[in-house]
Amino acid sequence: MAQEVRGVIAPGKDEPVRIETIVVPDPGPGEAVVRVQACGVCHTDLHYKQGGISDDFPFLLGHEAAGVVEAVGDGVTDVEPGDFVILNWRAVCGKCRACLRGRPWYCFDTHNAGQKMTLSDGTELSPALGIGAFAEKTLVAAGQCTKVDPAVAPQVAGLLGCGVMAGIGAAINTGNVGRGDTVAVIGCGGVGDAAIAGSHLAGAAKIIAVDIDDRKLETARTMGATHTVNSRETDPVEAIRELTGGFGADVVIEAVGRPETYKQAFYARDLAGTVVLVGVPTPEMKLELPLLDVFGRGGALKSSWYGDCLPSRDFPMLIDLHLQGRLDLGAFVTETIQLDEVEKAFERMHHGDVLRSVVVL
Ligand code: APR
Ligand code: ZN
Ligand code: ZN
C-alpha cells in the first residue's frame, strides 16, 4: 500500500517552497522506503528551486539525510527494516567500466528508485539528486542506503550524505592529504570547512584557511585551520607562499567554484603540488591560464565529485571516527529546524549565516 506523508516541494522556478502531501509507493525490486529522521539544507536544493539544475518541476527537495529503513523490496540484501542509514546519491552499479576497473567512485550508472513518488493528484515528483528527503519518508534505490553505527545523532550523520563528505573527501580522497602536508583551503563554507576538518584528520602539518569573510575564518579555526587569510585584504597567493617557507602548499583545495579563486589555488601550490576543485562552477565560467605555467609547475589538477567518496567505504568509517571523538561532525550543524522552515533556511544560507541548517523529523 502506498503511503501519504508530508514533504517539501519546489513547485516552479523561483516559487517559494511549500509542504505537500507526498505519495510514497511500496518499495519495488531493489528499492527501499526510508523513514527520514534528519535532512540538511544544501545549496543544491536552492539551485533546484531556482531552476538552475533542470526544469523538471515539481521537485521533492532534500538530499543530505539519515533515517531508518522501513521496508525493502524484492532482492534487497544489503539493508533491512530497522537499519540506521545515511542516504547517498552515488549508489554504484558494479557493472560499468569504472566499477569493473575497481574505481566505483567514478561509476557512470548510479542507481535511483525506479518508481516515482507523486503528489496526491498523481503529478510525478523529481526527487533532488534522486533522494527527496525533506519528507517524512522517501523511496530510494536500496544501494542509496548506507548502514552506519546508530549511536550517532541523525542530524549529524545525514551531513555525510552530501556537502561534508564532498569536503572531507576532497582532502582525503582526491587530494590525498597525508601526515605532514601543507594544505590551503580557499572558501570556508560547509564544504571548505569539511576539507579543513578532513586535512586535520589526515595529519596535515599546516592548514591555511582563505575566505573573504572574517566570521568564516573564525569558524575555520575551530575546524582545524592553523592559519587564516582574509583574501579581501591580503593577496592569498603571497600569504600562502609566505606561510609555507616560500614554496606554496602541497595541496590547495578550491571550495568556491570560481575562475579567480581557481587561479589563486593554481598559483598558491608548491611545484608538483595538487589543486583540487570541489567548488561547483556555473556553465558560463571560463578559465584562462598560461599553458606554460600548467606545464612548468607540474603536479596534478584534479576535480572532486562528491569527494570521490565510496559511501559503503567512507560513511561507516567517518561515523566511527566521529564517535571516537576524532572528527567533530556536530560542529557543522548550526541549527536544527522543522520541515516548514526550509524557505527561511535558504535565506539564512544565502546570507552566509549558517554552515548547515538541518531539518529534523
Ligand atoms: N574568495 C574566498 N572565499 C570566497 C570567495 C572568494 N572570492 N567568494 C566566496 N567565498 C567564500 C564565502 O565567504 C563562503 O564562506 O566561500 C564560501 C562558500 O561557502 P558556502 O556558500 O557556504 O558554500 P559551500 O556549501 O561551502 O559550497 C562551496 O562547493 O559543493 C560546492 O556547490 C558548492 O560551489 C559550492 C562550493
Ligand atoms: Zn558503475
Ligand atoms: Zn548537497
Structural key phrases:
2 domains; 11 helices; globular; binds zinc ion; single chain; 361 residues; 26% helix; Rossmann fold
How many alpha or pi helices?
A: 11
Mean of all residue-level pLDDT scores: 97
CATH superfamily of the largest domain: Medium-chain alcohol dehydrogenases, catalytic domain
Total DSSP E strands: 18
Q: What top-tier CATH class of the largest domain fits best?
A: Alpha Beta
Query: Class by helix and strand content?
Result: alpha/beta
Strand content: 25-35%
Terminal CA distance reads: 22 Å
Poorly predicted runs of 5 or more residues: none
- Helix content class: 25-40%
The shape, in one word, is globular
- The CATH architecture classification of the largest domain is Alpha-Beta Complex
Question: Can you tell me the CATH topology of the largest domain?
Answer: Quinone Oxidoreductase, Chain A, domain 1
Tell me the Rg in angstroms: 20 Å
- The count of domains is 2
Largest sheet: 7 strands, mixed
Bound molecules: adenosine-5-diphosphoribose, zinc ion
Listing every helix as H and every strand as E from the N terminus to the C terminus, the arrangement reads: EEEHEEEHEEEEHHEHEHEHEHEHEHEHE
Pfam families: ADH_N, ADH_zinc_N
GO molecular function: electron transfer activity; heme binding; oxidoreductase activity; zinc ion binding
Family: Belongs to the zinc-containing alcohol dehydrogenase family.
InterPro entries: ADH-like_C, ADH-like_N, ADH_Zn_CS, Cyt_c-like_dom, ER, GroES-like_sf, MycoS_dep_FDH, NAD(P)-bd_dom_sf
